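Subject: sequence -> structure tokens, single chain

Hey, anyone have a minute? Need the predicted structure for the following. Not urgent.
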Amino acid sequence: MRALNERFRLGKYLRATLIVADFVTLNLIYFLSVMVTGTNEVFASKMFWLILNVSFIPSEWVFSGLHNTRIVYADRVVLTAFKSTLLTACVLLSLLYLLDVPEIPFVNILVLFTFLFIGISAWWLISRKLLKKARELGLNFKRVIIVGSGPTAEAVYDELNSDLGYGYRMMGVFDNKPSPAASLEDCFYGSLGDVADFVHLNRVDIVYYTLDFENNELMTRLMAVTEEEGAEFVYVPKFDRFISANFAMSSVGNLPCMTHTLSPLHLRRNKIAKRVVDLVISTSFLIVSPLIFIPIAIGIKLTSSGPVFFRQKRTGIYGSEFVCLKFRTMRVNADSDKVQATENDPRKTKFGDFLRRTSLDELPQFINVFLGNMSVVGPRPHMISHTVEYSALIDKYMVRHAVKPGITGWAQVSGYRGGTKQLWQMEKRVEYDVWYIRNWNIFLDFKIIFLTVWNGIAGDKNAY
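Reply:
Had a minute. Here:
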């Protein structure tokens, strides 16, 4: 037990070290802000410095758990940094008012919290990268076992082993079935009766319980064992992978239950935030669009006869239809509403091929975004014929229409762009679209926009 306790203390030291580093980052940013904004007597005073550090304490109390979370995506880290900055700002301004501190120029406060958001985001992303690297080298790992060997156990195993940087060391799988699922065959396999002794002898940190909740005798016994050994007990209910992250704990009286939430985008405040971003981006682009649209229009007219814009009915939010705009990249043909473009499609013009490979053909869709029938980021809108076809072939295909379609999306920046010659390609695209809908946040949109621009500059082999 002494070795076990030492290991837990090291974990606490790590979190404490990262919290200290958070405060170091805060103070470096403060001194930088003083240098940038000039010396305001109050802003540069020791009193303000002390109040700022005190104001950061509630943020660390609420959000420093991020340092212990092993599986979290970059956009979530940035979103948490934004919340941390906002909370710190609210506490600071409240304290300044209550303590009757002389007025500080607005620009000083604005610069301070802009720098704080950028600095904390950067530090948390860098620290997570460093921790992942350390875990890849075998440091700061967690010993885990899985109780159960069915599909839910497979899902847990796949998640924990999807990245060595998460730092999970799989110790074994336990069930009374004759043999585990195929993906679990390389793990140590024992019976349910072996779990308690295994946890005791192997200093297990986390027990993932994936069996039916009705087996309460075994579950109660294992919970008692983990409490005695200082391990963590995690019950994983049997949910489909598509919906596993979208149940919120609630209650009916004293009865615990879980409420299904389709998407964060169905909350009014998130809808408003996304629409504001769409309007800002689309309006800004459309103001300068003549500088881009006119040369492209001339190029289209010089290389083929027909209209500059290609108009096509696509499936929008909740299955509604809208007219999607693109620059025409093909010669006028009768199959444009039925047949997808292919890599060496003879219908494409040379200039149209260039537009497709650089994604410039999609730019008129900013008009759709401004009009409100598309978003900058979302599942790509499909032709009506494809919606009819794939909705009958792919489970949860229509879920992708629960939000507005986008100019770019999570599937596109994840490598699933272009034609879908085989059904599995569309299935993967749908899987990524549904994941985006379930896990949306505003910083995920910014991440996708950045990756889209980056791919456009670097070139995308699937762009044709």
